[in-house]
Every structure is written in structure tokens, then in C-alpha cells.
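Figure 2 data, in text form.
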Amino acid sequence: MSADTVNPIPLYASSLRLTAVPTAVGCSRMFVGHTLKLWQLKDHAETATLVMSELVTNAVKASGITEPEPKAWQITAEHVIGIQLRAIEASLYVEVWDRSDQAPVRKNPDLETEGGRGLLLVEQLAKRWNVYRPRVGGKVVWAELPLGVPVELRPFEHTPPPLPRGIRAMQGPVESQARSALLDVLMTTTVDAMCAARVIRET
């Protein structure tokens, strides 16, 4: 197969590392809205925002600080989560990394129980969801949302989301780990999608 026969699959991807505190949930929603507007996929922002919020909430609980207003001295370079959006073929992927190896557990709370419905909501909104184990450790919980039609690359000016000061994760080993984990899942799943698309085209 020569280079001339390769047809690249359009791919959008954007990631961010945030401090693992409760305000990361709101910032992740801003990231989704901002990013999907740039990609001209804002019709999918509501669902993607709900899914991202639930996954980030779980990630903060698993490896961050859950106090509503943590003190500055409590936050260290270990308190990091990574978030990523990826659009390829006819799917939008919402991906969240945290440094805990423990997989989230889907609960079945009764009507009187407060909380515990996050993964149930993700399951209802997503085409599918699962956990990816990157080589650098931790986990990426991801959800696939249908777009209806394959994405088409369109020119846009990249601008960073307007996030509050101090919410971006501190640089250090864990921030680098988050960056590597998100790149790992991006590369692995993108190659898988490209191979699957090629098989479909050849059959």
C-alpha cells in the first residue's frame, strides 16, 4: 500500500489537565461548550456536558479533594485529572483520566437515595462506555456519543477556554502522567477506528 492510497480520517481532539477539586466539574462543562462550538458540533454540547460532568465528578472523588472550598495549602501537584474530547467518524468521545486504578462502580440506588446515579445517567446517554488502562497508570473512563454523521474537518481558530485562574493542574509528574495517558488512549483508539473504517471500505 502506497502513501497515495491512504485516506486520513478526520479527527478533532482537545485535552486539558485540571486540578482535582469540585470546581473542576464546572470548568469541564465550560471546556465542552467552548470546544464543541469551535468544532461546529454545539448541537451535541448538552449531552456531552452532562456526561463530562458525571465522569469528572467521579474522578475528583476517586483522586482529588472533595471539600467544596479547599484551602490552597491542601492542593498539591498530585491532585490532577485529565479531560479530553475526541470526534472521529460519527462518534464523539468524552474521556476523563484520574490517577486511581479503581474502576468506577455502577450503583442502583433507590428513589430515596441521594447521589449514586452518575454512571446510570452516562449509560442512558452514551452509546457505550468503558474503562481504558493506559500504560502510565491510572484509568481513563470514556463514553462514546453518536454524532449521526461522520465529522468533516473545517478550519477554525483555536482559542483556549476561558477558565478561572488556578484551576489548571500544576506541572509535575502527575500532570505529565495525565498528558501521557490521554495521548495513549487517543493514539490507540484512533488507530483502531482507522483500521475499522478501512475494513468497512474494502468490504
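Caption note: Residues 110-114 have pLDDT under 50 and may be disordered.
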